[in-house]
Amino acid sequence: MSVRRFMIKSRAIQDGYASFDGDIYKHMVRVLRMGPGDAVQMADEEGMAYFGTISQVSKERVAVKIDSCSPAVQSYLTAPCITICQALPKGDKTDLILQKGTELGAHNFLLFGGRRSVAKIRDNQEDIKLERWNRITAEAARQCGRSDIPKVGWRSGAEEAANDSNQELRLILWEGERNQSLKDVISVVEKPSSVIVAIGPEGGFDPLEVRHFTQHGFQPVSLGARILRTETASIAILAVIHYIWGEM
Ligand code: SAM
Fold it and tell me: What CATH superfamily classification does 76-245 receive?
């Protein structure tokens, strides 16, 4: 399992140790069940990155011995690598999703043919569509001043899209989810290195698709009682991720 990475305040560091109570203590000790000897990565608001080892856990505090520190590489300071895994929507909504998603910092788009997608793509159309979609993200990246261009990929169905995912945090925005909200699965103190978010088409997800995604480690989350349009969902999730872990 990759070493967990926490966002901390520099004032927690003193004499070669970092000491935490509150949210970080709760997340490390109660949620992740971490204990003495466990390795952690930390990054603070001054752009420093630390590698450490938990040295002591008491009822309310956890101490981490700092093993090394160095200026944080860019990846610490910006949002995780975000992939929007979008079921093909109708008409020109794909253009809007790619354009707005690029402006909002998505790193990749993985479009797929949802069971309930009205729009269909025949095999001989794939290359033309991919070329056009990647042109849209290139144009949007140029317009918003990004130095990188999000890559757009295509999978024929949810199964292929789910099978190919290896991101640290995997979410499926499911309109049928009644218990788990985004807040339940996103921790402010722990930043994943990569995130993938699956979003259904206008007709939503088929239960078989939800099952396949969840079997591949995607956590179903609700965005609340209101049903968002498919193009709104990707805008909303990107804004939230960048608010919590990015530059917003
Ligand atoms: N046909 C579905 C229905 O009537 O319940 C609505 C699908 S919605 C238009 C398109 C996609 O946006 C959903 O499959 C889901 O991925 C996402 N979405 C929209 N509203 C959501 C919500 N409140 N919670 C979680 N996901 C949502």
Answer: SPOUT methyltransferase, trefoil knot domain (3.40.1280.10)
Q: Angle at Cα 149 formed by Cα 115 and Cα 238, nearest 5°? A: 55
Residue 199 Cβ inside 6 Å of ligand 1? The answer reads yes
Q: How far is the CA of 3 from the centre of ligand 1 (A)?
A: 33
Pocket test residue of 228, 231, 232, 237 for ligand 1, highest count of atoms within 8 A of CB: 228
Please report, for the chain, the start and end positions of each structural domain, with discontinuous segments joined by +: 4-71, 76-245
Topology at the third CATH level for domain 4-71: Ribosomal Protein L25; Chain P (2.40.240)
Same fold, 4-71 and 76-245: no
- Decide whether any atom of ligand 1 lies within 6 Å of the 203 Cβ: yes
If you measure from the C-alpha of residue 30 to the centroid of ligand 1, how many angstroms do you get, rounded to a whole number? 32
pLDDT (tens digit per residue) in 62-88 = 999 999 998 876 655 577 999 999 999
Do the strands 81-87 and 108-112 form a parallel or antiparallel pair, or are they unpaired? parallel
pTM for this entry: 0.83
